[in-house]
Design goal:
Blueprint: H1 3-32, H2 37-52, H3 54-65
Helix pairs in contact: 1-2, 1-3
Length: about 80
């Protein structure tokens, strides 16, 4: 596996971690607490937003980590 390939998959995994974080927080709040449904829906909407902004987020992660930019803003 080349360094470029490792960098690509590292960025993808960080993006998936970000998306999963919002899903897990929303699910945890829904199942285990008496939290307002509005807060739970905000967590799920944030997960949807992260999913829709995949290219922009991955591109930003690549800039922060100074990796080769392999993602475009419109993925």
């Amino acid at each position: 596996m080349t360094d470029e390939s490792k960098q690509y998959w590292m960025v993808e995994h960080l993006w998936r971690l970000l998306r999963a974080m919002f899903l897990l927080i929303g699910t945890g709040l829904w199942l285990y607490t008496d939290t307002s449904p509005h807060i739970i829906m905000i967590c799920y909407l944030m997960a949807i937003l992260v999913d829709q902004l995949h290219g922009k987020i991955c591109h930003y992660i690549e800039k922060i980590l100074r990796f080769k930019e392999q993602h475009t803003d419109w993925e």
